[in-house]
Amino acid sequence: MHILTARNYIKSLIKAISVMRSFDLNNCELGVSDIAQRIGLSKPTTNRILATLVYGGLLEQNAETRKYMIGSGLFNLGSLYLITRDIVKVAEPIVKELNELTSEVTNLHIRDKGYSTTVLREESKHTFRFAYHVGSIFPAYSVAAGKALLSELTDAQIDSLYPDERLMSLTQKTVATRTELKKELEQVRKTGLAFQSEENRNGVEGVACVIRDVAGTAVAAMSIATPVFMTNQARREQLATLVRLGASLISYRLGYRDAVNPARSIEEIRAWWEQNQKVSTPQDISKR
Question: Which domains does the chain have, with CATH numbers?
Answer without folding.
Answer: 6-70 (1.10.10.10), 77-286 (3.30.450.40)
